[in-house]
């Protein structure tokens, strides 16, 4: 059942089939592996997805004081993300309007202004040109139209502390774009009464695999038992590290390619599922956190925030996983078979030192390239990429799990189908290049 | 030969100890490797954008193991289901520039440079960094109280994981 066929059983040329091929009656959902290996597809993705969609830039907690700045690569462009002198958040392209050099070469810091080291032009933290050597050689109205300022990103907006940019000025509003994902972001943002905050430190790594494989993997409940067998062993070995809760839950399509799985799991959650390992001190602490959630939101929502886990995906490349800790993760393709990944830990600003310590400990047990689980995900993705070398003879991947069900489980593949359906609508790519199957 | 004490241990003796550890790691004798640590030992690899002496209680690391988790890490790595290390990679730890930076009554603070190569599936990747060890003497033997590997890298590029012991 590797290649879709017409009802009359004549094979359809791959170049006439979309990458994402579905037969709803037969409950089949196929993705052409060309999409993971072809450089033309990557080019199309940069044009139709990364240049058109809202993309995650950073978190408000990274810019606390006026003058705070972060530089970050977003879809290959270096972006200068600042809080200006008046406290307003700005995002500019980090390239001198004069001759192009990157104006800021530090990852983060606090500065009143940025001086381009090449010819010495100076810009404020709002991106406005403040001075340039030899100003007398330019007309008085040289910057009257702002063309000598750092170029601002076409669109910048935030939702509950998460800042996004878009390179397409005509894009729909961020709230419209986020669609059904907003109320799920709320569940994460509501875990703090002041502000959720990124804990210092970035996990930054490269995976030799196509970026879409990490999208699939980040919201995949199906692989856990196999891929993460040693993590589950570890939980069993650690005395008191599990609460008596079975894995159980559901997946949801949130619109615009966003998706989430929500499920119960036995691990401890700093907000707020207690495990015996955390002792009496932890029990008191977590009851306090939980009671406060009940005061603020009522018991039903408080229980949902505290006890449910969420792996959330926001199209095209943002993952917010609220599991044994909260990770915010974004990633970009650098080649068809390589991606750059950035991972952070998110936490309530006001949580106690006790909770922060256990949160980070929980995070490292599972998450990140030194954890007990993520390295095996990386291995799985790289093995898939190697498998795609046989793309001509084995051209399809299958993402059908759960299609025949009315209500899917968290370990079905609905959420990946949401992603792929949106991806297909954006790229309109075919299973083989037009003009010839190769 | 006189008994090893913190007051008298030499750099050469520290080097011997660290070279032995490297050999044990490269030969995947991981259970034996655990015997080089104290009962309250820690093993830490900070993220590459936090201070070298940051605390894992308040900053994001790649690895922050206490003794229990260190043992679990070893147990995991020796299983077939530790997929990232099945089949096992070949590694080579090159330890150099070993120096006793300071010496208290109970501990040595040791610095060193380390290059670790990991080869798997036809690819070789390099981990570049420095070591900071806090060493103690128990029953006349050197033991590791804290091992910290500080990577001199901008993230883990191209190596997407720390699935071996650095």
Explain what you see:
The complex is a heterodimer of chains A (438) and B (166). Chain A is 27% helix and 26% strand. Chain A has helices at residues 34-37, 39-50, 174-178, 182-189, 211-218, 224-227, 229-237, 279-297, 299-307, 353-366, 374-387, 414-427; strands spanning 20-23, 28-32, 55-59, 68-74, 77-83, 89-93, 108-110, 113-115, 122-124, 129-131, 155-159, 162-166, 196-198, 203-207, 248-255, 258-264, 309-314, 318-322, 326-335, 338-348, 396-398. The longest helix of chain A is centred in the middle third of the chain and has 19 residues, at 279-297. Chain A is globular. The two termini of chain A are 20 Å apart. Chain B is built from three helices and six strands. Chain B has a six-stranded mixed beta sheet with strand order 2-1-6-5-4-3. The relative contact order of chain B is 0.22. At the A-B interface, strand 14, helix 7, strand 20, helix 10 and helix 11 of A face strand 2 and helix 3 of B.
Largest sheet of chain A: 8 strands, antiparallel
Largest interface: A-B, 43 and 40 residues
Task: Indicate the mean pLDDT of chain B.
Answer: 96
Q: What is the arithmetic mean of pLDDT of chain A? A: 93
Note the topology:
The complex is a heterodimer of chains A (438) and B (166).
Chain A: E1 20-23, E2 28-32, H1 34-37, H2 39-50, E3 55-59, E4 68-74, E5 77-83, E6 89-93, E7 108-110, E8 113-115, E9 122-124, E10 129-131, E11 155-159, E12 162-166, H3 174-178, H4 182-189, E13 196-198, E14 203-207, H5 211-218, H6 224-227, H7 229-237, E15 248-255, E16 258-264, H8 279-297, H9 299-307, E17 309-314, E18 318-322, E19 326-335, E20 338-348, H10 353-366, H11 374-387, E21 396-398, H12 414-427
Antiparallel strand pairs in A: 1-2, 2-21, 3-12, 4-5, 4-7, 5-6, 8-9, 9-10, 11-12, 13-20, 14-20, 15-16, 16-17, 17-18, 18-19, 19-20
Chain B: H1 11-26, H2 30-34, E1 37-46, E2 61-65, H3 67-77, E3 90-103, E4 108-120, E5 123-138, E6 141-151
Parallel strand pairs in B: 1-6
Antiparallel strand pairs in B: 1-2, 3-4, 4-5, 5-6
């Amino acid at each position: 059942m590797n290649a879709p066929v017409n009802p009359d059983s004549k094979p359809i040329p791959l170049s006439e089939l979309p990458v994402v091929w579905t037969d709803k009656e037969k409950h089949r959902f196929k993705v052409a592996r060309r999409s993971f290996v072809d450089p033309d597809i990557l080019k199309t993705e940069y044009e139709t997805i990364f240049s058109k969609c809202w993309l995650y830039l950073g978190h408000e907690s990274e810019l606390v004081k006026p003058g705070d700045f972060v530089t970050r690569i977003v879809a290959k462009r270096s972006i200068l993300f600042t809080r200006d002198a008046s406290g307003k958040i700005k995002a500019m392209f980090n390239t001198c309007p004069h001759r192009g050099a990157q104006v800021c070469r530090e990852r983060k810091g606090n500065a009143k202004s940025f001086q381009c080291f090449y010819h010495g032009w100076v810009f404020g933290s709002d991106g406005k040109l403040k001075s340039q050597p030899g100003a007398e050689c330019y007309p008085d109205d040289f910057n009257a139209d702002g063309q000598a300022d750092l170029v601002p990103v076409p669109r910048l907006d935030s939702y509950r502390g998460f800042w996004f940019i878009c390179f397409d000025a005509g894009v729909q509003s961020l709230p419209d774009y986020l669609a059904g994902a907003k109320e799920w972001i709320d569940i994460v943002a509501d875990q703090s009464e002041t502000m959720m905050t990124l804990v210092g430190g970035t996990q930054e790594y490269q995976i030799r695999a196509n970026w879409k494989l990490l999208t699939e993997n980040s919201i995949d409940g199906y692989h856990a038992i196999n891929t993460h067998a040693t993590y589950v062993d570890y939980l069993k070995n650690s005395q008191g590290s599990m609460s008596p809760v079975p894995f159980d839950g559901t997946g949801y399509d949130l619109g615009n390619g966003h998706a989430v799985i929500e499920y119960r799991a036995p691990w401890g959650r700093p907000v707020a599922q207690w495990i015996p390992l955390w002792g009496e001190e932890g029990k008191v602490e977590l009851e306090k956190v939980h009671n406060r959630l009940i005061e603020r939101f009522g018991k039903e929502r408080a229980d949902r925030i505290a006890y449910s886990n969420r792996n959330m995906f926001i199209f095209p490349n943002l993952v917010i996983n609220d599991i044994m800790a909260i990770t915010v993760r974004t990633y970009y393709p650098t080649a068809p078979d390589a991606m750059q990944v950035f991972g952070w830990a998110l936490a309530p600003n006001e949580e106690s030192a006790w909770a922060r310590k256990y949160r980070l400990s929980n995070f490292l047990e599972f998450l990140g390239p030194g954890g007990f689980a993520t390295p095996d995900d990386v291995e799985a993705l790289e093995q898939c990429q190697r498998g795609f070398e046989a793309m001509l003879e084995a051209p399809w991947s299958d993402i059908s799990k759960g299609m025949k069900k009315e209500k899917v489980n968290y370990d079905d593949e609905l959420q990946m189908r949401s992603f792929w359906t949106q991806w297909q609508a954006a790229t309109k790519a075919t299973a083989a290049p037009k003009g010839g199957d190769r | 030969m006189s008994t090893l004490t913190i007051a008298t241990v030499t750099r050469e003796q520290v080097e011997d100890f660290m070279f032995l550890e490297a050999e044990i790691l490269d030969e995947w004798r991981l259970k034996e490797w655990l015997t080089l640590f104290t009962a309250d030992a820690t093993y830490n690899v900070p993220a590459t954008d936090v201070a070298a002496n940051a605390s894992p209680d308040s900053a994001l690391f790649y690895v922050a193991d206490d003794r229990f988790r260190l043992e679990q890490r070893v147990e995991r790595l020796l299983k077939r289901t530790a997929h990232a290390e099945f089949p096992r990679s070949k590694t080579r730890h090159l330890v150099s520039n070993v120096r006793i930076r300071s010496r208290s009554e109970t501990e040595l603070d040791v610095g060193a440079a380390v290059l670790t190569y990991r080869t798997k599936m036809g690819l070789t990747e390099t981990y570049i960094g420095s070591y900071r060890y806090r060493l103690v003497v128990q029953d006349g033997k050197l033991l590791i109280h804290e091992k910290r590997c500080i990577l001199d890298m901008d993230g883990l590029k191209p190596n997407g994981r720390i699935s071996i012991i650095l």
